Amino acid sequence: SAVISQxxxxxxxxxxxxxTIQCQVDSxxxxxxxxxxxxxxxxxxxxxANQGSEATYESGFVIDKFPISRPNLxxxxxxxxxxxxxxxxxxLCSVAGPGTYEQYFGPGTRLTVT
Amino acid sequence: RKEVEQDPGPFNVPEGxxxxxxxxxxxxxxxxxxxYRQDCRKEPKLLMSVYSSGNEDGRFTAQLxxxxxxxxxxxxxxxxxxxxxxxxVVNRGYSSASKIIFGSGTRLSIxx
Lengths: 114, 112
Description:
Number of strands of chain A: 11
Number of helices of chain B: 0
Shape of chain B: globular
Helix content of chain B: under 10%
Number of helices of chain A: 0
Radius of gyration of chain A: 13 Å
Oligomer: heterodimer
Strand content of chain B: over 45%
Helix content of chain A: under 10%
Strand content of chain A: over 45%
Structural class of chain A: mainly beta
């Protein structure tokens, strides 16, 4: 499986500000995903990020709030914009290889908004 | 109805016991099924894929029942290190390439 890193690992931010989370993979992958895991909850898919095209967002998530970049096959960023305390969560990126539904996750970014 | 439903537990069992979790899914077009394990404050990690014929990996056995749309995970001879949350994961079907849906997880605690 791929080795995935995320930066930052955690952050405490003030409401109204934005935070960009980076996801780096040690090999080229076609599909990358961004998830949110709120306290005590399971994972919810935010969007799918494919290189060379705009991200595809799930219901309830919009590009203005969660802009995503995917400049190449090993890197992606997720920005949490105009943050509110409700955005406090763990944000995880994951990757899947071609032709498989198996996904492997980065260590996550723990975000607290005050 | 949730797309993937699990008993949240917690299951509290003694070391060495056998424990089983069930999971049901609502999308009959789903083709791929997985169990993930998530330790406290860590990311989910793939435990095993679930194949139509059922599959076994050491102490872990996964079963799929397409007719009833449920998946099971059996852990034999449980160890203290098996304490974690187990997530049932199902793909959304043909038209949603590679998208997977997570159940809410079943918490397992193994006591000495």
